[in-house]
């Protein structure tokens, strides 16, 4: 079949909206008609050429929602007409990682997914001349239709709006999940969130959902203060307005009652800056503080701290997709949204057509959008 897509033919070039060929689903695969897709910084990281693992030509996009149009042989968990969210972190439930119950990082299709291919080692996309086009993060949601493995598709309730729940395919789950599934924040905790972009705001509302008492947001942009407060932030700090070192300033803020040591129970980095990651660890509480790294640092970057920081009980943790198990947890997060436990609508700042997708990335660069969404 033919479908329209925004294709990244070369690194650093604007996406080209054009018709492409899409082969139907093979055994164990699902054809989805996409209804909406979010524009994520990760897509731009690859499009720009900064991603050392970027493969071109490719159809980018990994934050989508749509309807199952057709299923291949052997598919049992979804059927045509089901509403679904594509998963860049699949959940096969049979690989050693899934069976361990210690991680959400399913390994069943990891090798081919990283090569921009389906599990059989081929692509379902091609140009009208027949040249292959790579998949992206196993999803390729910058298209009217896409094909995914069954293990990378989460079935969700049918009354949830596509242009909102697509954000659960990455940003919402990454932020909220880091709190609920990775850090396991408890009621009454203190927390500091570094970086109040889309991910950071979702960390904040995850902390609110978990019942944290003190939620400190840290950002160099004072305009983020109102955004943070909207989602549950209790205190705001602009590092540029702090005299001296930021770490002792934050530690002092978190001293409560008889606790004169200070430091947050939980800290979260949503910046990708390795210097900020260090600060986040060092302002967590001696003895039990947990610092969760969410932001993706540039290729080759390394984090460092004095061993004393770890020997005295602080923990450095990483998280991918918020620690969520895609087919199990994504439907739950959709339920939380529909029940009003978390918010998404305010973060969808721009609705665009596929033809406007490059403008959406311009808005991202200009800092004018929290999340732009393409509606098909």
TrEMBL record:
It holds the Pfam family ADH_N. It comes from Rubrimonas cliftonensis. It is an enzyme of class 1 (oxidoreductase). Residues 198-336 form the Alcohol dehydrogenase-like C-terminal domain. Its EC number is 1.1.1.284. This is S-(hydroxymethyl)glutathione dehydrogenase. It catalyses: a primary alcohol + NAD(+) = an aldehyde + NADH + H(+); S-(hydroxymethyl)glutathione + NADP(+) = S-formylglutathione + NADPH + H(+); a secondary alcohol + NAD(+) = a ketone + NADH + H(+); S-(hydroxymethyl)glutathione + NAD(+) = S-formylglutathione + NADH + H(+). Residues 27-155 form the Alcohol dehydrogenase-like N-terminal domain. Its cofactor is Zn(2+). GO terms for cellular component: cytosol. InterPro entries: ADH-like_C, ADH-like_N, ADH_3, ADH_Zn_CS, GroES-like_sf, NAD(P)-bd_dom_sf. SUPFAM superfamilies: GroES-like, NAD(P)-binding Rossmann-fold domains. One of its GO terms (biological process) is formaldehyde catabolic process. Keywords: Metal-binding, NAD, Oxidoreductase, Zinc. One of its GO terms (molecular function) is zinc ion binding. Belongs to the zinc-containing alcohol dehydrogenase family. Class-III subfamily. The keyword Zinc applies. Gene3D superfamilies: Medium-chain alcohol dehydrogenases, catalytic domain (3.90.180.10), NAD(P)-binding Rossmann-like Domain (3.40.50.720). The keyword Oxidoreductase applies.
């Amino acid at each position: 079949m033919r479908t329209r897509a925004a294709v990244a033919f070369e690194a650093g070039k604007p996406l080209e909206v054009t018709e492409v060929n899409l082969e139907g689903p093979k055994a164990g695969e699902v054809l989805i008609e996409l209804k909406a897709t979010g524009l994520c910084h990760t897509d731009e990281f690859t499009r720009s050429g900064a991603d050392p693992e970027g493969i071109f030509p490719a159809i980018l996009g990994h934050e989508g929602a749509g309807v199952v149009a057709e299923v291949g042989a052997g598919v049992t968990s979804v059927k045509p007409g089901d509403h679904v969210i594509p998963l860049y972190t699949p959940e096969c439930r049979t690989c050693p990682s899934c069976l361990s119950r210690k991680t959400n990082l399913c390994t069943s299709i990891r090798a081919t997914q990283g090569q921009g291919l389906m599990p059989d080692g081929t692509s379902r996309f091609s140009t009208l001349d027949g040249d292959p086009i790579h998949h992206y993060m196993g999803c390729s949601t910058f298209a009217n239709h896409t094909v995914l493995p069954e293990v990378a598709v989460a079935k969700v309730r049918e009354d949830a709006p596509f242009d909102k729940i697509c954000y659960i395919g990455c940003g919402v789950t990454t932020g909220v999940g880091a709190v609920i599934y990775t850090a396991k924040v408890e009621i009454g905790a203190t927390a500091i969130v570094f970086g109040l972009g889309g991910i950071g705001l979702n960390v904040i509302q995850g902390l609110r959902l978990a019942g944290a008492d003190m939620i400190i947001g840290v950002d160099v942009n004072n305009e983020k203060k109102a955004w943070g407060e909207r989602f549950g932030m209790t205190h705001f700090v602009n590092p540029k307005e702090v005299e001296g070192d930021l770490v002792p300033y934050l530690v002092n803020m978190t001293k409560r009652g008889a606790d004169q040591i200070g430091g947050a129970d939980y800290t979260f980095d949503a910046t990708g800056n390795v210097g900020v990651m260090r600060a986040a660890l060092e302002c967590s509480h001696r003895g039990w503080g947990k610092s969760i790294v969410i932001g993706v640092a540039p290729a080759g970057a390394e984090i460092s701290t004095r061993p004393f920081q770890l020997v005295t009980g602080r923990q450095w943790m990483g998280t991918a997709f918020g620690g969520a198990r895609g087919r199990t947890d994504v439907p739950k997060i959709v339920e939380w949204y529909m029940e009003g436990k978390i918010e998404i609508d305010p973060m969808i700042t721009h609705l665009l057509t596929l033809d406007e997708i490059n403008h959406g990335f311009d808005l991202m660069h200009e800092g004018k959008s929290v999340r732009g969404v393409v509606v098909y």
